[in-house]
Amino acid sequence: MTSISSDLPPSMPARPRSQVLPYVVLLILAALVAGLVWYATRPVAMLVQGEAEAPRVDVSARVPGRVVELGADVGDRVEQGALLVRLENAQLTTNLGAAQAALVVAQRNETAIGATRPEIIRAREAELAAAEADLQLAQEAATRDQALEQRGVRSQAVIEQSARNLAAAERKVEAAQAQLDLTRAGASPEERAVAAAQVDQARAAIGQAQANIDELNVTAPQGGQVTGRMVELGENVGAGAPLFTIVDLDRTWFTFNIRENLLGGLKVGDRLRVQVPALDAQIDATVTLINAQGDFASWRATRATGDFDLRSFEVRAAPATPVPGLRPGMSALIRPAEAEGE
Fold first, then answer.
1. Where are the domains of the chain?
2. How far apart are CA 281 and CA 319, in angstroms?
């Protein structure tokens, strides 16, 4: 037979699979390393963490007492002026009674000083009448002695004694008249002023005692939610001891501590987008305060040259609208570079 030759080129010998696999693995490893390097060196937006805050008031009593009534409990929402605690203090009640009695005494004393009894006035008038009668007798005796002395019957010594008796009778009338005038006029202006001041002092003591009793009813200084109660019914509490904690949830704000090199020109009035993970929400807020923190919040340079200390600033931002569910202590996140000027 005649053989037919093929026009096809001779085929290349096939490369074994075991020789290709290492190259594939190397390519995959190289891609992974490149991806890790990119992930580690990629620019990441700075994220600053803060928290939500709200006005908080620790309510205490100004006077001591025993708790006889509780007007609120933890979790209650109270309005400003609502009764929180009513105390009882018998000593303060007694002090009020004593102050009221002292006022009565001061008023009676003022009245007594301002007026004179009619009996005393009549007694002074009688003393004046007696002095005038003595003066008349002394004048008659002096006139008689002078007439007798001209006739040589009275000695000079008798005449001098009559003159002295007349002068003494005149002084006695003057003294009696002065006593009567003083009695009719009553107390002096200075004594009246002292009596009036004692009345004012007694009234002030009553006001102080009444103010202390009013403090037995402890009321809410602001509206909000009661987040703490540190007193029980029947317990004796001292002045200044904390009784309740009230947080005003309607006036919540965000606060952040930001190093000065991250402020990026941030100023009061700028808008921030605040992320609250607890609410899974983005909240628009306006910067209301930028205040330098103390030296304790400064970042200290670690190199002697080419570096400097950086201070931290407190940044406060108020939500543009009320945020339901926002509570103090919730984390808040911002990116300073995203601040927008008004």
1. 56-87+216-247, 97-211, 252-338
2. 12
CB-based contact 198:109 (threshold 8 Å): yes
Contact between 238 and 257 under an 8 Å Cβ cutoff? The reply is: no
Sheet holding 217-219, edge to edge: 217-219, 83-88, 65-70, 236-237
DSSP letters spanning 41-72: HS-----EEEEEE--EEEEE-SS-EEEEEE--
Phi first, then psi: give them for residue 61, nearest 5 degrees: -95, 145
Q: Rounded CA gap, 259 and 49, in Å?
A: 12
* Helix, strand, or coil (residue 1): coil
- H/E stretch holding 16 reads none
> 161: pLDDT confidence band, cut at 50, 70 and 90?
confident
Q: Strands across the sheet with 242-247, in order?
A: 56-60, 242-247, 224-229, 77-78
Euclidean distance between CA atoms 150 and 4, whole angstroms: 210
User: Which residues make beta-bridge pairs with 246?
Assistant: 57, 226
* 43 or 233, which is more confident: 233
Domain 252-338 CATH (choose: 2.60.120, 2.40.30, 1.10.8, 2.60.40) = 2.40.30
**Which structure tokens are listed for 273?**
């987008």
Return the closest-CA partner of residue 319 out of 337, 300, 334: 334
- Residues near 57 by Cβ (< 8 Å), separated by ≥ 6? 221, 222, 224, 245, 246, 247
Residues 6+ apart with CB under 8 A from 70: 84, 85, 229, 231, 233
Amino acid at 312: S
pLDDT band of 262, cuts 50, 70, 90 = confident
Domain covering 56-87+216-247, topology:
OB fold (Dihydrolipoamide Acetyltransferase, E2P) (2.40.50)
